[in-house]
Amino acid sequence: MQSPITPISAELRRLFASSTRVLVLTGAGVSAESGVPTFRGGGNSSVWKGIPVEEIASADTLQRDLPAVWEWFDYRREVLRTLKPNPAHQELARWQDRFAELTVVTQNVDRLHQKAGSRDVIELHGNIWRARCINCRTCRDIAPHEGRPQACRRCGESMRPDVVLFGETLPPGEFERATRRASRCELCFVVGTSSLVYPAASLPEIAKAVGAYVCEVNPERTPLSDRCDEVLTGKAGEILPLFGT
Ligand code: APR
Question: How many A from CA of 189 to the centre of ligand 1?
Fold first, then answer.
């Protein structure tokens, strides 16, 4: 039997109606109802061909075996190719007309927020539909039916997925931009993330430190839950649309 959705408090409803600067941090769980597998949660962690995702999608593997890294991301692009935004992405896209400043900071690389119509999206972990030259950093988009790009058109070097791998730092400027938004928001939603991967997981802490009201939306508890002002237990695609009602 499904557990009932936690009701939204009157305080959160009031803040939702009166806030002007809102930050939403999203993780794999926001895309789960679109059919995108999460990395963790439900007692599982992600493995592919018996290899933990932390190993296959790592800076070390990139150095040793770039084709193996591409193989994993080719597989993931294939999974994502036909998937569509769900009611959680759609509701967040509607919020941008509600607030003077609505920033969606995502750890997801699936571009589903943008597909739903969100414009101000900070992609902390890059994008699976983009490749980057390992030498000159020239980027190019990968079309849905396209295979992996072979060589950089500019310098001829190898291309790699434009995604942040384990052991790598975030794209220059993106985390700083997210930090600036977190440090001036009044309301912060943390949706569908296990809050285990830093520095993304520090954004709600920054928001909290400046006095923002922090609300987590997740069917499971996370290390952040006890430090939030409110926890809405349930699926993002069921909870977020309740704000529009
Ligand atoms: N709605 C909301 N949350 C959900 C849903 C749902 N329908 N289904 C699952 N979840 C929650 C899980 O309970 C879990 O807490 O989503 C979370 C997913 O956690 P992770 O898989 O760890 O995803 P994320 O936090 O985005 O991972 C961070 O780790 O491997 C990396 O680079 C990858 O960006 C990723 C990063």
Answer: 14
